[in-house]
Amino acid sequence: MSKDQEYHPLIDDPSGDVEDVEPPAKSTWRSKFSHTVLAVLLAAETLALGIAVFALFSRASQTACTVPLHSQHALYSPALEAVEQEVQVYNVGFSSDFSPFQIPSSPELDKMWSDLYNFGISRITKEEAAKLPNKTHAIPGDDGYYIAELDVFHNLHCLNKVRMALDPDYYPDWRISTTNNWIPSQKNATQHVSHCVDWIRQSIMCNSDTSVIVWQWEDYLNASVVKGNVAHTCRKFDKLQTWAKNRTLRKAYDPTVHIEDDIVVPVFYSELP
C-alpha cells in the first residue's frame, strides 16, 4: 500500500495523549444513534417514494386499460356475444351488378325481405335485461324473460316499408301523401314512412361506415369514375340472425299486461336521452 493510500485516523493526536480525546464508548453511541436516525429517515423516504410510484403507475394503468365503460359510450347488448366481423363488397346496384333484392315487387321479394327480420322480437333473461341502458318489460306468461329487439332488425323493417311506399301500385296500403297530394286515409302510412326514413338516417349517422369509395380511371370514357364495389368491414349478419332466432318469443306478446319487477336502471343510463 502506498503512502497516499495509507489509513489516517479522523482525529489526529500528535502528542499521543489519549486523555484529550473523547472517550471511545461515548463516541460509538453517538455514531450509532446518528446512523440509526439516518437509516430510519432513508427507509421512510424510500417507502413514501415507493407508494407514490405505485399510485402513479396504477393510475396510468387504469387510464390506459380500464377506462370506465360509460365514458366510452359503449353500451351493453346481450347480442355482443354474437358479433363477428368480416369483409364484404357491396353490390353497386347498377349495370350488371344487381343485388337479389332488386327484383320487381312480388311475393318472392316480400318473402326475401321478411326472412331478414321476421324473428326480430326476442326474449332475453332478467339478468340480461337488468344490464340494458333502458328498462324493458317482462313477458306475460314467460316468467324470468323480457322482451327486446336488436335495432338492426327494426332498421330492416323500416327500410322494407320505405321500399313498399316506393311502389304504391303494388302496395296500395303503403301509398303515402306527397307534397301536393295529402291523402287522409293514408295518414298512418305517411307518418310511419316518415318515422322510418328519419330512423334510418340516424342509424346511418350513428354507425358511420368509414370504408372508402374510390375513383378509378376508365380509358374508354377518358375520365375517372366512382367505384362503389369496395371492401367494407361488416358484422356477420347471419350470426346475429342466429342469435335472434334462438330467442324468438314462445307466445304472442300481450302489451296490455303490466308486470312489476325489481330492475333498477343505473343512474348513468337513466340520464341518457
TrEMBL record:
The keyword Transmembrane helix applies. One of its GO terms (biological process) is mycotoxin biosynthetic process. Residues 1-23 are annotated as: Disordered. Residues 1-11 have a biased composition (Basic and acidic residues). Signal peptide: none annotated. Keywords: Membrane, Transmembrane, Transmembrane helix. The chain crosses the membrane at residues 36-57. Pathway: Mycotoxin biosynthesis. The keyword Disulfide bond does not apply. InterPro entries: UstYa-like. Belongs to the ustYa family. This is Tat pathway signal sequence. It comes from Mycena venus.
